[in-house]
Amino acid sequence: MLSETNEEYVVSRNACKLCTPLGASLAFKGIQGAIPLLHGSQGCSTYIRRYLISHFKEPVDVACSNFGEQTAIFGGEANLKVALDNIRCQYKPEFIGVATTCLSETIGDDVPGFIRKYLETNNPDEVPPIAQVPTPSYRGTHIDGFHGAVKAVVDVLAVQRERDTDQINIFPGMLSPADLRHLKGILSDFGAPFVMLPDYSQTLDGAPWTEYHRIPAGGTPVSDIARMGESTATLEFGRILARQNSAGKLLSQRHGRPCHSLGLPIGVNESDALFRAIELITGKPTPEKYVTERERLVDAYVDGHKYVMDARAVVYGEEDLVVGLVAFLSEIGITPVLCASGGKSGLLTETIQGVVPDHSEKGIRIMEGADFTAIEEAAQDLQPDLVIGHSKGYAMARRLNVPLVRVGFPIHDRVGGPRILHVGYGGAQQLFDRIVNTILEKRQETSAVGYSYM
Ligand code: SF4
User: Fold this and answer.
1) Which of 36, 162, 262, 338 has its CA 20 to 30 A from that of 93?
2) Starting from the edge strand earliest in sequence, which strands make up the sheet with 168-171, in order?
3) Is 22 in the pocket of ligand 1 (CB under 6 A)?
């Protein structure tokens, strides 16, 4: 089919990406006392809440400015004002994060102007800080919304530099709560003070309540974010993010402190890069605990190598997670025969080629801006042994008759999604064991002999 501009247009069939303001809402949930507010129709916030709740199994409030027919025609300024008033009255938030939706972006609402006017017409001592990020879902994916929200928060809040400190900023990206806890543990074990943004390790994976809380405990305090400009250095993860404007680079430009842009620390090599960077910043050696953890991991690679070598995997998800997983799979001997993402940064192919130098000999196929229908069509010819990605790929894995190893977000058909550990030597150990056992289980189940000893 040709569009009006005579470019080939293909509709998306079962998208391999999520809605952009979903990522922004998740990032805002990692700030202490925060409420995400979607400027748009109620259905958008309902969908996003449902998606987040199904994965995290926690209550998630996402406010909405509740567009109706009249708002869609005359603009949403009045609705946004009412929404901000209501949120302040009902939640007493310490921070409000505003993300737009497709509709408010399409009609061209001047959200920064609306917020400016709101701040001018209210007592500044009574209004919490407000950051806003444009998140039309027809441009970008959930990961763009996530990184855009983090950058918007830094832009509004991280303005202070009264002194210089030895604290480290860490922008972990869209990882699991278990990953965030693991990274915080590593920095604590180095004895390094740090500010992590966002930190939803407690707000979205907390303890049971005896009474209802409008806003769950946890998250990065606004006062800590304000002091990020005083840190000695910044760590951010994602080889693709490294080539884009990011919160880390904004801080670096504004306060002149180095930003270490690393790959997602999945596997030995990318985790080594993380530990080297922390050693460089702190001047301290890696704690013995992690040296031993690394040695155990390498030993496990040796023990399990004969079961995974030459296995073939299809990997999909958000671009930087795919790159991180491909780096890990390549070091354990699995060929990622198909690497796919719904993201359209235009950087995926080149970035994967950077982490797998012999990609052409291995015949690795890379698909950018792909949906699940296209991924499945491509996978059918490649005879994979397993599929690695989030739970939206389950139907494809089932039709391909190969097992799915669940990673990332969302995991809607299993419990424990928030507790999947991907990063560091500990994360690589867990991923490695799961992948080896998945391959073994498939071979055992399809064997003509019911063997019970390898
Ligand atoms: S209309 Fe746009 S912002 Fe709303 S749920 Fe759909 S894709 Fe997301």
Assistant:
1) 162
2) 194-196, 168-171, 233-237, 259-262
3) no
SS3 206: coil
Rounded distance, CA 454 to CA 97, Å?
Answer: 53
- For residues 210-248, one letter each, b for 16 or more C-beta atoms within 10 angstroms of the residue's C-beta and e for the rest, the string is eeeeebbebbbbbebbbbbbbbbbbbbbbbbbbeeebbb
Tally of CA atoms within 13 A in the half-sphere of 58 that contains its CB: 26
Q: Which atom of ligand 1 is nearest to the CA of 103?
A: 1
Q: Quick check: CB of 228 below 6 Å from ligand 1?
A: no
Q: What spacing in Å lies between the alpha carbon of 282 and ligand 1's midpoint? A: 43
For the chain, what percent of residues have pLDDT higher than 70? 98
List the domains of the chain with CATH numbers.
Answer: 20-157 (3.40.50.1980), 168-282 (3.40.50.1980), 295-446 (3.40.50.1980)
Using CA atoms, how far apart are residues 292 and 302, in angstroms rounded to an integer? 15
Per-residue pLDDT of 416-443, as tens digits, reads: 999 999 999 999 999 999 999 999 999 9
Pairing of strands 34-39, 63-64: parallel
Which of 159, 188, 403 minimizes the C-alpha distance to 282? Answer: 188
Can you give the pTM of this predicted structure? Answer: 0.96
Nearest alpha carbon to residue 15 among 274, 342, 288: 342
